[in-house]
Amino acid sequence: QVQLVESGGGLAQPGGSLRLSCAASGFTFSSYVMSWARQAPGKGLEWVSGIYSDGSKTLYADSVKGRFTISRDNAKNTLYLQMNSLKPEDTALYYCARGLGRYDYWGQGTQVTVSS
Predict the structure, then answer these.
(1) DSSP summary character for residue 27
(2) pLDDT confidence of 91, banded at 50, 70, 90?
(3) Residue 61: its pLDDT value, please?
(4) How do beta strands 34-39 and 92-99 pair?
């Protein structure tokens, strides 16, 4: 069965960095576009970034452009999100998802908290 398992969340100071990972299994990872999304406390789900199946194109929400970098290692079936220059407003539960715009599988999420 399809599984997406996020890791790497935690507490970071403003201006700090974190790297999220999403381990995929149960499907041919290299054939799918993948995305990261987040949900802040009391707010709706926000798409953050997407990457084509071969990594040839990446897309970002304006709120994270220039600070976050999405990447993937198809040999390791793993999706990444490098988050730099973190801000308190980046605090959220971060999910990886299969697809872009329309999603059919989600991970359980990993919590990112940005606070001094």
Answers:
(1) S
(2) very high
(3) 98
(4) antiparallel
Q: What are phi and psi of 25, to 5 degrees?
A: -155, 160
| Mean pLDDT (whole number) for 65-94 | 98
Which position has the token pair 């926000």? 46
Report how far residue 38's alpha carbon sits from residue 16's, in angstroms, rounded to the nearest whole number: 18
Nearest 5°: phi and psi at 19?
-125, 120
DSSP class per residue in 66-85: TTEEEEEETTTTEEEEEE-S
Q: What's residue 74's pLDDT?
A: 98
Answer yes or no: are the C-beta atoms of 79 and 22 closer than 8 Å.
yes
| Residue of 28, 2, 13 whose CA lies nearest to 83 | 13
Cα–Cα distance measured from residue 62 to residue 43, given in angstroms and rounded to the nearest whole number: 17
Q: Which two tokens stand for residue 14?
A: 């403003």
HEC secondary structure over 43-54: CCEEEEEEECCC
Identity (one letter) of the amino acid at 79?
L
